[in-house]
Amino acid sequence: MKQYVYKLSLKEQRSPVTSTTEDAQFYLIFNSLELMKKLPLFIKRFGFSNELLKLFIKLTLKKNAFYFLVYRDTIVNDGLISFNFCRHYQIGKHDCVIGPVNTDPNYQGKGFATLGLLYCIERLKLASIYEHLFIDTKENNLAMQKVIKRCGFGEHIEEFERDNNYY
Length: 167
Hints:
This protein is α+β, with helices and mostly antiparallel strands. It has a single domain (2-161), classed as Aminopeptidase, CATH 3.40.630.30. It has 5 helices and 7 strands; from the N terminus they run E-E-H-H-H-E-E-E-H-E-H-E. The chain has helices spanning 32-37, 39-46, 50-60, 112-127, 142-150; strands at residues 2-9, 25-29, 64-71, 74-83, 95-103, 132-138, 158-161. It has a 7-stranded mixed β-sheet with strand order 2-3-4-5-6-1-7, sandwiched between helices. The longest helix has 16 residues, at 112-127. It is globular. The mean pLDDT is 90.
């Protein structure tokens, strides 16, 4: 299946995020200690699964960050951020990649994916050390393509074939 790759410059000026859901709280965590502070939310989201263990390890290695949006004590949207590395396409030394991005099925179509991604973009811009942000999605994931465009990425810049068994 084809994946579409999108690129956004983090040096361009953007408007501040305005939330249509005032009760939503955004978090961006860079290490496993921060994850532990929110452990009940993560257990509610992931259970005691291999997925939670993998996330803990990725944050411990400090090559990734994780963002999540909480609404009514539930993680409704989340995404992994990889720094300086992508196994599917080439990125620069000061670039990062978001993905996978997930939205709780009970909250899809309510703007949480857009809100979470917009908050993430703004926080990465504030760090001022990253130049570009990349994100990719399956060619048939029209909902995510709309989210990506709403967040300022524009048209995809590249395509590649991804194994259907990959997330």
